[in-house]
């Protein structure tokens, strides 16, 4: 495969024809896009030959790293046998069935909740749209059609379709296009650094933050609330890791009022938190689990929902036709790649690695960033990490939004061969699960270097 390209030509065509997601088009055209041409292991290269350590796993998805021939072979073989067939009209295909059974075997039973069924889509956003449809159908079938309201959280990310963006709590997204759609409402996120009161412990804050759900349920009216949706750890919101007390209290509240719990694990499943599913890490009992990204390590689009017995039994037993589905629900090639991807993860014990010694090493090295003068708090959970850049370490004074410190730091990362993402004043990573100890050391050296250079620049600008 020829990866040598004329950068200027590709950039010109890019500007002329390609509208990128979540992008200020004019600004990008002025600057020109970075052209990524190849990748291997945990590194990507741009068209100028620059190598970068991809600490974001693409977009939180390339869990097994780049260059896995096995995944390409799985796609090739399935394309030759059966590249496509639908699963609408009393038909099915072998990889979709095998994957559903495999997922059912990987999803652990918690309490009275088990997962035997899967509904497929091609992305996280579509999967959350399916959740909205399924949750409302569930309550309709139980004779409670007035239970329509889904409660989510500010700064959550649940996708970019109309329902996905509405479930999400991104004010910038809501501002464009009259969102959220009706019957979706939000509570505050469990971000201790920002919302903890002076003298309040993280554990006390966790209980208080979960209490906002109970307040909202009572304000909306118990008989109108259908479900609560949340990510185990908020990813795109800036890797917001909830205090240990948060999820147990959320569970108590959803149980008390009988509302469904949706765990959006588009980022957190498939080893990201050291478990096959994120709910295992925190020990709660979801009714529906959204997945995408890591199921194929991003090699091909696939998403879906694990449908727990509580919902599945009603849909199946009381059902009739569920008027919802996608052309690519259960796509044979995507499912074949997912099976091969899971096989790699099992054979190489990647999930155990993140949960075990490798994950502990990553956590220990990442925690060292707390000593840096610009870092307010650096935390990890499995293989996600976040840190907040602060003006004053002692007082925890934050920078102003217009200082754009995250973007300053991100530029130093890129320039020095590291892909780290900025969310406001938070710098975040989600490295591939195949990182070695040496890769983690290299990553930490690069982060330190980027932080040092950021400090120098901010000092020169008089911001610190
Ligand atoms: N939910 C979560 C938690 C996500 O992180 C994302 C994507 N970052 C989505 C949903 C949407 O997934 P997609 O971009 O595949 O539609």
UniProtKB/TrEMBL annotation:
Keywords annotated in UniProt: Aminotransferase, Pyridoxal phosphate, Transferase
GO terms under cellular component: cytosol
Pfam families xref list: Aminotran_3
PROSITE patterns associated with the record: AA_TRANSFER_CLASS_3 (PS00600)
Family: Belongs to the class-III pyridoxal-phosphate-dependent aminotransferase family.
PANTHER family noted in UniProt: AMINOTRANSFERASE, AMINOTRANSFERASE CLASS-III
Protein name: Aspartate aminotransferase family protein
Gene source species: Rhodoferax saidenbachensis
Origin organism lineage: Bacteria, Pseudomonadati, Pseudomonadota, Betaproteobacteria, Burkholderiales
């Amino acid at each position: 495969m020829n990866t040598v390209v004329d950068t200027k030509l590709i950039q010109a065509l890019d500007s002329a024809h390609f509208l990128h997601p979540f992008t200020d088009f004019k600004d990008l055209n002025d600057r020109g896009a970075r052209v990524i041409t190849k990748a291997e292991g945990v590194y990507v290269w741009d068209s100028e030959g620059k190598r970068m350590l991809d600490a974001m796993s693409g977009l939180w998805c390339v869990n097994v790293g780049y260059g896995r021939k096995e995944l390409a072979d799985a796609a090739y073989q399935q394309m030759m046998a059966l590249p496509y067939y639908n699963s609408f009209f009393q038909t099915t295909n072998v990889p979709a069935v095998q994957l559903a059974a495999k997922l059912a075997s990987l999803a652990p039973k918690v309490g009275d909740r088990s997962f035997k069924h899967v509904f497929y889509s091609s992305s996280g956003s579509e999967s959350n749209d399916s959740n909205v449809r399924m949750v409302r159908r569930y309550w309709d079938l139980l004779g409670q059609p007035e239970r329509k309201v889904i409660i989510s959280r500010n700064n959550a990310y649940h996708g970019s379709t109309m329902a996905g963006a509405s479930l999400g709590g991104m004010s910038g997204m809501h501002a464009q296009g009259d969102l959220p759609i009706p019957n979706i409402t939000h509570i505050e996120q469990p971000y201790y650094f920002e919302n903890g009161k002076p003298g309040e412990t993280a554990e006390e804050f966790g209980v208080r933050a979960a209490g906002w759900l109970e307040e909202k349920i009572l304000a909306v009216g118990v008989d109108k609330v259908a479900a609560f949706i949340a990510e185990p750890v908020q990813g795109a919101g800036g890797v917001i890791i909830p205090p240990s007390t948060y999820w147990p209290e959320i569970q108590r509240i959803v149980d008390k009022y009988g509302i469904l719990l949706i765990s959006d694990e588009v980022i957190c499943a498939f080893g990201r938190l050291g478990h096959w599913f994120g709910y295992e890490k925190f020990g709660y009992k979801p009714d529906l689990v959204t997945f995408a990204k890591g199921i194929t390590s991003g090699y091909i689009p696939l998403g879906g929902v694990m449908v727990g017995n509580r919902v599945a039994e009603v849909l199946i037993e009381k059902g009739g036709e569920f008027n919802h589905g996608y052309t690519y629900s259960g796509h044979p090639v995507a499912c074949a790649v997912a099976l091969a991807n899971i096989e790699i993860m099992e054979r190489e014990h990647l999930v155990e690695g993140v949960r075990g010694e490798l994950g502990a090493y990553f956590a220990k090295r990442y925690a060292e960033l707390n000593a840096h003068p610009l870092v307010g708090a650096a935390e990890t959970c499995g293989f996600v990490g976040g840190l907040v850049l602060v003006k004053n370490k002692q007082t925890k004074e934050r920078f102003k939004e217009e200082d754009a410190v995250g973007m300053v730091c991100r530029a130093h990362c890129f320039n020095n061969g590291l892909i780290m993402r900025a969310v406001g004043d938070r710098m975040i990573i989600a490295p591939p699960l195949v990182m070695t100890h040496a890769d983690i050391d290299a990553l930490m050296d690069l982060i330190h270097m980027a932080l040092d250079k950021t400090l120098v620049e901010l000092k020169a600008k008089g911001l610190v």
